[in-house]
Amino acid sequence: MEQFDFEAELWLYPGKGGWHFVTLPQDIAVQIRFAAEPTKTGWGSQAVLARAGRTEWTTSIFPDKSSGSFLLPLKAEVRRKENLTTGQTVKVALMLTRA
């Protein structure tokens, strides 16, 4: 299973609920689009195993029209365990999984 490693800034969505995300770099997004084509959903989301620091979790990445990339949500539990705050650069590893 291919692993995609990158660094990205943690940001807070300005809408109700305030989810935290990182936006995948464009080069990683292109590779994932190619690798995920056979398993992507109708919405274009892709199931992944994500890791930040020592914390691993299963989630999905979601296509983002404004950036032309994917968004990875970082739930509160992950941010708390890894001491992550908005504006911080996060090292991430992703592996595609089957939904």
What can you tell me about this protein's structure?
Keywords: Plasmid. This is DUF1905 domain-containing protein. By secondary structure, the chain is an alpha+beta fold. It has one domain (3-96): Elongation Factor Tu (Ef-tu), domain 3 (Beta Barrel), CATH 2.40.30.100. The chain has helices spanning 26-36, 76-82, and strands at 3-12, 20-23, 46-52, 55-64, 69-73, 89-96. Strand 3 (46-52) and strand 4 form a beta hairpin. The longest helix has 11 residues, at 26-36. It is globular.
Task: Summarize the topology.
Blueprint: E1 3-12, E2 20-23, H1 26-36, E3 46-52, E4 55-64, E5 69-73, H2 76-82, E6 89-96
Antiparallel strand pairs: 1-2, 1-6, 2-5, 3-4, 3-6, 4-5
Quick structural overview:
This protein has helices at residues 26-36, 76-82, and strands at 3-12, 20-23, 46-52, 55-64, 69-73, 89-96. It has 99 residues and is an alpha+beta fold.
What is the H level of CATH, i.e. the homologous superfamily?
A: AF2212/PG0164-like
- Bin the helical content: 10-25%
Q: Which strand-content bin applies to the residues?
A: 35-45%
Distinct helical segment count: 2
Question: What is the name of the CATH class?
Answer: Mainly Beta
Number of strands: 6
The tally of structural domains comes to 1
Radius of gyration: 13 Å
What CATH calls the topology is Elongation Factor Tu (Ef-tu), domain 3
Order of helices and strands: EEHEEEHE
Distance between the termini: 15 Å
Largest sheet: 6 strands, antiparallel, barrel
Q: Indicate the CATH architecture.
A: Beta Barrel
Shape by Cα distribution: globular
Strand order in the sheet with the most strands: 1-2-5-4-3-6
Q: What structural class is derived from the secondary structure elements?
A: alpha+beta
Provide the low-confidence segments as ranges. none
Mean pLDDT: 90
